[in-house]
Amino acid sequence: SEIAGEPELGVGGAISLLWFRRRLPRYVSKFIELCMVATADHGPCVSGAHNTIVAARAGKDLVSSLISGLATIGPRFGGALDDAAKMFAAALDKGLTPAEFVAKCKQEQTVIMGIGHRVKSLSNPDARVTLIASYAKEHFPSTTLLNYALEVEQITTKKKANLILNVDGAIAVCFVDLLRGCGSFSVSEADELIENGVLNGLFVASRTLGLVGHFLDQRRFKQPLYRHPYDDVTYLKP
C-alpha cells in the first residue's frame, strides 16, 4: 500500500518491481510505459484482435475471448521481440559488422527478426519506431545496439524499402541497451532476462489492453455471430 501511494511509481515502476525485483530509474519506467502505449493495439485485423473479436461475437466471456487472442502471439505475430534482441545482441557481441551480420543471415537463409514491415517503409516510416528510438537516444546512457540495428537497416533497405527496423526490432534492441546500460544489471543478468522472455511478456501485457478494448466494442455494439466471407477462403485446386 505504501508503494502504491507513490505518485511517481506508475505502471512502469510496478513492472520494474514485479518483473525485475528492483526499483529501476524513472526513465526506465517511462520507457516501459512508452512501449506499452505504442504496442497496445494495431487495429481489428491483426491475428490477436481478430481472434478476440470472433470469440466475443460467438458469445464467449471476456477471459475466454482474451485467451483466444493472446494464443496467437508467437514468432509470426508479436513474438519477435525476444528473438530480435537475441539475434542483434549476439551479432554485436561476436564483433560482426552490420554488413557481415546481414551477409551471414543471407548465407544461412535466416530471416533477420525485427526487420521488415508489410506497410511501412523508408518513405512511409513507422512513427512508433521514431518515437521509441528518439526517447532512447535522449535518455539512455548508451544506444550501442540501437545504432547497430539502424546500420543494419541502412543495408537491408537498399534491397527493399520496406526492410526497415520495425517496432518489434526497435523495442528489442533498445531494451537490450536499457538493461545493459542502466546500471542495475550485469550483462549476464540482462541476457538472462531476455532469454527468460521478458520482452514477449511486455508485448503480452500491452496488447492485453487493446484486446480487452476489442471485446468491449463487440459487446457495446451487440455484434452478432461472425461468419467469414467465402471469397476469402475458397480456392481452385491446382
Topology:
Layout: H1 10-20, H2 26-39, H3 47-57, H4 62-70, H5 80-93, H6 98-107, H7 127-139, H8 144-159, H9 167-181, H10 187-195, H11 198-220
Helix pairs in contact: 1-2, 2-7, 2-11, 3-4, 3-11, 4-11, 5-9, 6-8, 7-9, 8-9
Written account of the structure:
This protein is 61% helix and 0% strand. The mean pLDDT is 94. The protein has 238 residues and is mainly alpha-helical. It is globular, with a radius of gyration of 20 Å. Helix 1 (10-20) crosses helix 2 and helix 5 (80-93) crosses helix 9. It has helices at 10-20, 26-39, 47-57, 62-70, 80-93, 98-107, 127-139, 144-159, 167-181, 187-195, 198-220.
Q: What percentage of the residues does DSSP assign to strands (E)?
A: under 5%
Low-confidence stretches: none
Number of β-strand runs: 0
SSE run:
HHHHHHHHHHH
Task: Compute the CA-based radius of gyration.
Answer: 20 Å
Name the structural class: mainly alpha
Q: Which percent bin holds the helix content?
A: 55-70%
Based on CA inertia axes, which overall geometry fits?
Answer: globular
Number of helices: 11
Key features of this structure:
238 residues, 11 helices
Short overview:
The protein is mainly alpha-helical. It has helices at residues 10-20, 26-39, 47-57, 62-70, 80-93, 98-107, 127-139, 144-159, 167-181, 187-195, 198-220. The radius of gyration is 20 Å and the shape is globular.
